[in-house]
Design a protein that fits this description.
alpha+beta; GMP Synthetase, Chain A, domain 3; 3-stranded mixed beta sheet; globular
């Protein structure tokens, strides 16, 4: 049985030809049950994002992961780049902020 993380990785790699794909389960840093798969950080680099603004890129990912978003995935931090944008970022996506929701306040 595949984990939600594996399903997200598979669907995104099938959606676009990825130069780089990293899906991190960041659920442990949130107010959720141990072992949850609800919060993810996605860094995806693809030539398929050329000519698309940030909103269109996000819409493409949301459309691909609609089933997961409707069935337990609560949050996706999306960092979507073209290869040249990725190089200009020194091939690094930003760190995720610490959760301040629920009992973490």
């Amino acid at each position: 049985m595949s984990t939600v993380q594996q399903i997200i990785e598979q669907k995104l790699s099938e959606m676009l030809s990825c130069d780089f794909l990293q899906v991190l389960n960041e659920s442990h840093g949130h107010n959720v049950a141990k072992g949850s798969e609800t919060h993810f950080k996605v860094t995806l680099v693809s030539e398929g994002f050329e000519g698309l603004n940030r909103v269109k890129r996000h819409q493409k990912v949301y459309a691909t992961l609609g089933e997961e978003l409707n069935n337990g995935v609560h949050a996706l931090a999306l960092h979507l780049y073209t290869p040249s944008e990725w190089r200009s970022k020194q091939e690094q996506s930003p760190e995720s902020p610490q959760c301040m929701g629920g009992s973490k306040r």
